[in-house]
Design goal:
The structure is a single chain. The protein is an alpha+beta fold and about 270 residues long. The chain has four helices and 17 strands. It is globular. Mean pLDDT is about 90; it is low at about 265-270.
Length: about 270
């Protein structure tokens, strides 16, 4: 069974991110790569950087026709084991976003903090970013600002109307020093974990190589997915429906006693 080492856990807590030694097998990566291509084929009208809730089968109510294969990935016991090392033994899956940046025209992901637009209170989450293709400086790999999670501060974000961004929320100038950024280069099957307060982004992909990562979202059950909240007023540039987003308790119990694990599940298999 995969498990974060004490050094990996300490690195995550100190820096806000970690690339664990564990990685998916070549066979699993090949299966997910096939699932990715099928997902793109099923959603010809959706930018491949904006395949939100790809883990919800059929018409997911958020503009995407999802795939069971991505739910299986998000529920993978070894990935959940890694997550439990940093958020505890009670783990809730609530999201899965495929960021596929086409060669030569892949959108930029502006610097941002995830917590700015997620309805989780108290705010707590670990994102596992799984590389299905090489993710390098050349094709727009994930970039992070180390230690920007410390203190649990959400900085001001500005709204942009640009059409070449994966998200239309950008950190306001002066909130951080971009010179401190670290590029998280990954090979297929590798993954990184990062905290909900981490400042991160990615450059546009102007290379001749496609770049795809699957962002899996996990919260501890001591927090509540507050369905009536509307963080950032829905101006992220990605269609979401948090009121109907299904949750899965993958490990442990619901410590808050307030999370609803029935809402949204009626959509499975629809369409």
């Amino acid at each position: 069974m995969a498990r974060l080492s004490p050094d990996e856990i300490a690195h995550y807590q100190r820096e806000g991110w970690v690339i664990p030694e564990f990685r998916l097998s070549r066979r699993r990566v090949a299966q997910m790569h096939d699932a990715l291509n099928e997902l793109i084929h099923r959603n010809p009208g959706v930018r491949p950087e904006k395949l939100v809730s790809a883990h919800i089968e059929g018409d997911n109510g958020e503009g995407v026709r999802g795939s069971r294969e991505f739910l299986d990935l998000a529920m993978d016991r070894e990935i959940v084991e890694l997550v439990s090392g940093v958020i505890g033994e009670d783990v809730i899956l609530w999201g899965c976003h495929v960021f596929c940046k086409p060669a030569s025209e892949g959108f930029e992901t502006p610097w941002h903090q995830d917590g700015h637009y997620w309805p989780i209170r108290p705010l707590a989450n670990c994102t596992v970013w799984v590389a299905l293709e090489p993710s390098t400086r050349a094709n727009g790999c994930l970039r992070v600002i180390p230690r920007s999670h410390l203190g649990g501060v959400l900085h001001p974000h500005l709204h942009e109307e640009r059409q070449d961004l994966t998200l239309n929320q950008r950190m306001a100038a002066g909130s951080f020093d971009e010179a401190e950024a670290v590029d998280l280069e990954l090979q297929p099957g590798q993954m990184s974990l990062h905290d909900v307060y981490m400042i991160h982004g990615a450059r546009a992909n102007t290379s001749n190589q496609r770049r795809t990562g699957v962002a899996l979202r996990y919260m501890p059950s001591t927090s509540v997915f507050e369905r009536d909240l509307r963080p950032a007023d829905g101006k992220t540039g990605v269609a979401v429906n948090f009121a109907q987003r299904p949750l899965w308790l993958l490990r442990g119990v619901d410590r808050s006693g307030r999370n609803d694990f029935e809402v949204g599940h009626r959509r499975h298999g629809a369409g």
